Amino acid sequence: MRIIAGKHRGRTLRIGPAQALRPSSDRLRQAAFNILDHGSHGAPYRDEPVIDLFAGTGAWGFEALSRGAAFASFIDHDPGALLGIRQNAAALGESTATNLLRLDATRLIAPPHAAPAPAALAFLDPPYGSGLAVAALQGLCHHHWLQPGALVVVEVARKEPMTPPKAYAILDERVYGAGRAVFLTLKSED
To answer: Which end of the chain is more exposed for a tag (fewer CB within 10 A), N or C?
Structure first.
């Protein structure tokens, strides 16, 4: 697994001793960032905090940091995954631009002071077929982890159903191999 673009382009991410990780494919991440960078979204992560939820290897958050995100909060419940993320942050010289939170993504609490929030962009990469994305999206909205109008990229299995909570609108969906990237926006409060 490698970082695709930006200041850390080509750097390899080591996978920690986490259980049952399914890393996002480089192809899916590259395509998602191309959409974010070159679409109407205008690279919403540049100089902004981002969240990598169900972080696993941390590939989404590290890619965003490499491309100009100000800060990344990595959230996972597996201590082995968080250890791997910590090691990669140190190897990339990004320790001061990251924080690691051992939380259940489906039972989020209000952001602690160590996590710059609300964020402009979140990445959710739950286990395929788990149905965990909806509960995590609800927590992000309910506990004010995201700015109004924030973007969310959810990676699910190609044919996995994913109907977001009413607070979100689907902007786009793209299929890449076994995965599907669903682009959402948190609706602004009217």
So the answer is: C
